[in-house]
Amino acid sequence: MLKIVVCVSGGGTNLQAILDALESGRITDTEILAVISNNPGAKALDRARDHGIPAICLSPKQYPDREAFNEAFTENLTELGPDLVVLAGFLVRIPPQMVARFSNRIINIHPSLIPSFCGVGYYGLKVHEKVLERGVKVTGATVHFVNEGMDEGPIIAQKAVEVEEGDTPEILQRRVMEQAEWILLPRAIDDIANKRIRVVDNVVRSCS
Ligand code: GRF
């Protein structure tokens, strides 16, 4: 049984996609131990509570400085004992000590085709604003392992999404969520739970 902790900051639509996939059997052999958010008002926490999953608020604002938060965040996760940490719309930088302790056991969903439109400052709606500004015709989403860089870890899966005439950032974000994020993240969790992928020399390979 793959035990996971899901980290969220906002609406939790990616968390909802995971919950729906667990219910429908598209994710097997997996259990959500807890959902953690830095945002006490995150709708994602309500989604967790609605499913009887422990909803924990852990924010840098609760600590005197970032290093104290980093230590507490890492210790809390270690105590929960997940096999995998899933960042689903989580907007807090992952502490280096957590990346080291959970090496190749943290995954993130990013709303672009990495290495395009990623890195510092590229999150949420800002990604889609930049995509439209640049005028690219295809965007998409990426699930990747988290390493010490920003959106630089080994890529697990990607899915392309057409940019359409008249798209606003909001319309494009929704299409990328529906056509890519909500498909890729549950599938990646199921692949990890069923040992279908492994990391070899920083590249994700299929085991099946
Ligand atoms: C989404 O754009 C996702 O790509 C990004 O965070 C945003 C909010 O996701 N990682 P959610 O609705 O909170 O899952």
Which short descriptors sum up this protein?
alpha/beta, Rossmann fold, seven-stranded mixed sheet, binds 5-O-phosphono-beta-D-ribofuranosylamine, 6 helices, 208 residues, 9 strands
Write up what this structure looks like:
It is built from six helices and nine strands; from the N terminus they run βαβαβαβαβαββαββ. With 208 residues, it is α/β, with parallel strands linked by helices. The protein has a single domain (2-197), classed as 3-Layer(aba) Sandwich (Rossmann fold), CATH 3.40.50.170. It has a seven-stranded mixed β-sheet with strand order 3-2-1-4-5-6-7, with helices on one face. The chain has a two-stranded antiparallel sheet with strand order 8-9. Strand 2, helix 2 (43-50) and strand 3 (55-57) form a beta-alpha-beta unit. Helix 5 (125-134) packs across helix 6 (169-193). The longest helix has 25 residues, at 169-193. The chain is globular. It starts with a strand and ends with a strand. The model has no long low-confidence stretch (mean pLDDT 97). Bound molecules: 5-O-phosphono-beta-D-ribofuranosylamine. 5-O-phosphono-beta-D-ribofuranosylamine (GRF) binds at residues 8, 10-15, 44, 88-89, 109, 111, 124, 173, 181.
**Helicity range:** 25-40%
- Number of H- or I-type helical stretches: 6
CATH class annotation: Alpha Beta
Low-pLDDT stretches:
none
- Terminal-residue CA separation: 19 Å
- Tell me about the largest β-sheet: 7 strands, mixed
Using the coordinates shown, work out and report the CATH topology.
Rossmann fold
Bound molecules: 5-O-phosphono-beta-D-ribofuranosylamine
Over all CA atoms, what is the radius of gyration? 16 Å
Strand order of the largest sheet: 3-2-1-4-5-6-7
Q: Find the CATH superfamily.
A: Formyl transferase, N-terminal domain
CATH architecture: 3-Layer(aba) Sandwich
The tally of domains stands at 1
Structural class: alpha/beta
Anisotropy-based shape: globular
